[in-house]
Write a structure and sequence with these properties.
alpha+beta; 3-stranded mixed β-sheet; 4 helices; 3 strands; globular
């Protein structure tokens, strides 16, 4: 599975389990600011995943997999997951 396909599978899975995923620009808001990076945060008690579009698909997949593992494990237990997705979530 290509990194892009894996990322797409993870994004679809996140949508299916109700995980909020927001794509953000990689450049800083103001000149001279460091570029944005992907991460996970809590907003009013809900887990959000921010994916910086300038980062590699591998980096974004790792952040998304972390959020799914940590915040949606129960919702994933009874789902079919392609082997590549299952492997990434298991790490």
């Amino acid at each position: 599975m290509t990194p892009e396909t894996l990322l797409s599978e993870l994004e679809n899975l996140a949508a299916d389990v109700g995980l909020k995923v927001v794509k953000i620009p990689s450049r800083g808001v103001r000149e001279g600011e460091p570029p944005a990076t992907s991460g996970v945060c809590q907003v009013r008690g809900r887990c959000w995943v921010l994916l910086a579009v300038g980062e590699s698909p591998v980096a974004r997949s790792e952040v998304l997999a972390h959020a799914l593992r940590e915040h949606c494990a129960d919702a994933l237990e009874q789902r079919y997951l392609p082997p590549a997705v299952r492997d990434l979530l298991g790490s």
